Amino acid sequence: MAVLLVGAVTAFRYLGRGRAPAASDASGSETVVVDSGPVSVLLKETGVVRPRQSVAVKSKVSGKVREVLVAEGDVVRQGQLLAVVDPDAQASLTLSQKRLELRRLKVELDQKERAWKRQAQLAREGLVSDELAEEAERDFRVAQNLFLQARTALNLLETEANQELTADGALSLTEPGGVTDYRILSPLAGVVSSVKVKPGEMATSGTTGFSQEGALLMEISDQRQLEVVVNINEIDVPKLRPGMPAKVTLAAAPGAPIAAVVDRVAVSPLVEANATPDSGKVIVFPVALRLPERPAELLQGMSASVDITREERPFVVRIPILAFAEKDGKAFVRMGGKEQPRTPADREVTLGLRGNRFVEVTAGLKVGDVILARYPLDDGKKGPGGGR
Hints:
disordered C terminus, Elongation Factor Tu (Ef-tu), domain 3, alpha+beta, four-stranded antiparallel beta sheet, conserved putative lor/sdh protein from methanococcus maripaludis s2 fold, CATH 2.40.50.100
């Protein structure tokens, strides 16, 4: 039975990092000295720097963009005027009709109120029955509810269009107007991360008039809270939880890694366009990493390599990931060193945590022992137990 080598070939590049220089034994094989140190299980991925809070600013009315008052990179305050849209005829007509309807209901409400007061007075004088007075009061209450509902609906529409709210005192006999200009206000304080329109272009909301979907005009992001977002394969997501430590290395600043912490693990996958259960696409979940200390060079949109520490033993006896082999459920290392014969002996070891670069040894070796840096795949000799 062949002895199976455990570990990836790519990990061999890391064997010498943080250790004493490798030597050779009597057989000429590269050796390492067993040492103590951390053993870490890392999840390696790439991510993108994004703001924790970002808002898409949309126009809920279709029309021509009259003014764009900000540019990418501008700092804005909440409620600041960003752009002005000249609404199309349908949007203006919708608001005008709502105002006309409110004025009609106001007239009807006033009539019902006068009728109720008149019937109540007549009932007190004994000229009409109490039933007639009560019926007049019910008619007034119904008209009052209809008016209040219509005014609330109109005020909501005016709020969406950033128009002055219609008050009872403004309901005069003059012709109610529609939307003269649709003012786009910033929903939060932040930085303009992108602008999608220019003056003179059409802001199309998908339908004429008012639309809940809205036409995208620009994006505002809070640059005070930037984070690194990584898309994690569905197989690895259950192994992650908030609070796990991580290291982030920016592609634009490949120096010392930046300390990070897993902040949020998405509960639903990232849905790709046209993805179906049979499309064969990899399912990933967004995971956000918080940076306790923000470096000055950190900017939205930067790419970064991420190492998330799933598990770590800080100070244990360890060997390189390629220095052992397994057979029949047991692990072996090949002893080395100048005192070893030309045919080194294998030694059975008990392993603990298996990390990306090192493996914990709980029994069979001690600090200072010399072993081969890489267990031979097949040296032509019988392995332990007679295997090849």
